[in-house]
Amino acid sequence: MSNSSLPTLPASDHPEVAARLRDALLGAAFTADGLLELLGAPAYAALARSETVPALRATRGDTPLETLVRLFLLQQPVPHARVEDVLPVAECVEGGWLVSVGADEVAATVDVRPYGGPDGEDWFIVSDLGCAVGGAGGIGSREEGVVLGVGGASTTLAGITVRTPVSAALDLGTGSGIQALHAARHATRVTATDVNPRALHITALTLALSGAPAADLREGSLFEPVRDDETYELIVSNPPFVISPGARLTYRDGGMGGDDLCRSLVQEAGERLREGGFAQFLANWQHVEGEDWQDRLRSWVPRGCDAWIVQREVQDVTQYAELWLRDAGDHQGDTAAYEALYDAWLDEFEARKVRAVGFGWITLRRTDSDAPSITVEEWPHPVEQPLGDTVRVHFDRVDYLRAHDDAALLAAHFRLADEVIQEQVGLPGAEDPEHVVLRQHRGMRRATKVDTVGAGFAGVCDGTLSAGRILDAIAQLVGEDPVLLRDRTPAQIRLLVEQGFLEPVG
Length: 506
Prior knowledge:
By secondary structure, this protein is α/β, with parallel strands linked by helices. It is built from 20 helices and 19 strands.
């Protein structure tokens, strides 16, 4: 597909058409809930995987909702008269949302997908035809200028983003505008940038069709469009983080050597953040032979920032190359061309001594502390989204622990966090367990080993007694020197607070 063959974009000088189109879509129940009711769970789930046959079978009728599903989701030409009963066809054609096909049919020029907001809002995400993300084979497009719809990465970033009210938010590499749309709920002013002008246009459509305020849209790469005197309380980015030989596809390939794009994005974010502000990114990073991957990421963190970096997945270089070759549909073309591309990826990794590629989340918070906290960890296990509050509270705990030495911890009061359970592991019939595990059922769903003292301490914490008094009682119960117990336990208390098992009281 070439740029010239892409559908004509709806004209941005017809905002009233977007408003009327939104009213028509809502009137026909073209919403996430409406789709689920119409299609049923199996067909709805199949559509999310880009499998359309079940949805085609479920939309054989002529109701307004079936018409809209065929038009915007399944991208089927629909008789003009049938659409006229649902949409202002003449205005939609003039505004560029629809195009005439043959003598008596119309077709959509863009993909429009219902998207449920976090508080039940009925939003719509606009993207290029055929580029709604989903399916085991990727989007199968090799057109560098396409704009993708909602995918797992974009919903992940939206879920982990801290949602406190801010005056200014920045969405770098906005794509179809998903992060800008979320930010518009709690930011007075939203700036969205993208190197692809087509993406900026589609972002404007997403916001208008969703009934959200317009964003300040700027063309350029990374922080280039941002003025030197501009700072933000929130920066988010789902950047083109794929590590590839070259920048063939704008929507995914960084275009810099290795993981340099992600590194640059993180390092440059610090000076753009206001005090206490957050910068949150998805990223890929290289696992280089002879180098600790955690040290690599620590080196990215800019001065004056706390950081929490979570590696969610690691792929060896062959898995990684295959994933992204399939994403572009290269595996469906000429075998020799596919093998040549695969070889080029492996050459690139071999030259850089890369053995694997990690994927995860990076969160920065601007701090005035003289001792910034940098946490880099691997957590590939299931979590409970949304995690925005979990991320915010993580940094609150960082502040608390930074301000409390061991003596202050012993004088403090704590309570066991909600939905924490205790598991004991040991041989059947044994008098004592081999080890005790505390496990969370919310947020990060962490699990951590504790000794019997740590388990007993956590179980007693209800905010009533200070940590020191609880330890004194435990020492008397187990016959241990209370002074020695007070000396060795604060490290365990600190860990339980850091990981969210214990919450400070007062």
